[in-house]
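Predict the 3D structure for this chain.
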Amino acid sequence: MIFCAVSVGSGHIRASESIMEHFPNSKLFDLLEHTPRWFSKIYRDGYLLAVKWFPQIVGWCYTFTDTHHLKTGGIVSWIEDWITRKFQKEIIQANPEVIVSTHFFTSKVLTRMCRRKQLKIPVVTVITDIHPHLIWLTGESDYFCVANCSAVTESIQKGISPEKIYCTGIPVNSHFYEYSSKPIASADNFKILITGGGAGVGEIQGTVQHILNRIKHANVTVVCGNNITLKQALSEIKSERLQIVGFTKSMHTLMHQADVLVCKPGGLTTAEAITIGVPMILMQPIPGQEEKNAQNLIAAGAAVSGYTPEAVCYILNALIKAPELLSEMRISALQLRVTNSAQRIADLIKSSVV
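Done. Predicted structure below.
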């Protein structure tokens, strides 16, 4: 069995790895590792630069493409196929029985290969955001795994046959299900976890400095991901209450220890948070999918919005003084989770596909 994803951030890869736990002999293909270097750099860096400098345009494009079926045949398909020709060749040579895709780009390429009869196998698309954007649904996948019942309804409204859609939840590592509930936070030992996703983006340094300056008893752990520059900058802050972590495979432990998670509302990060039941303060969502994620989480009572370092500090102070609110947010988060999402997807594959 083959899993396919694109390493923009780390969420899509983590989603694949979570399901792969149930298939010991499976293999993961990162599409960007099988395309020209210039394309990989443009695809990764171009998106982050667009989000940083042209957020309104990014948001407009997201909204427009979610409500309009764009024709991507002809020259666009030809260019995509040319760029991914090595990836396609290696997929054909691998000769899998089924392919699971956790990124819309790989789903697009793979279903086009199926249409040309280069592949004659089922393609399972696992959507890694709460909102099922139309770009995920424009391919011809045999199965779509979505976050919740609302996503099922939205997918049907966008033209997907009901028999193709499964409410599995967003898959997370099995370690996130191992923890039981924890006691209400103590104001004398309040633990804050901050992350900007795999790329370590956002106003993290400023947020850390504000917290350490304004909240005397807070202990802060920052996950920098692959952002070496951020890690170096934070290392210059001298405080016994600050712990700096690079890329880690122990996010489940860090989230369980935290009383609050300050994060961007990425699909996988927030799915992990609601699975383990940690309240969230959401920073600067990327226009589009992260804004949709934030809206859902805030409406459910599992998160609040903190767009600036000052706002984050204000909210943290309020929550420290009202631990019952933290308890309510924790309960709201746990009510959103879909138990054993990766296992559900694995069972679907085993019973209906393989």
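The first strand starts at residue 2 and ends at 5.
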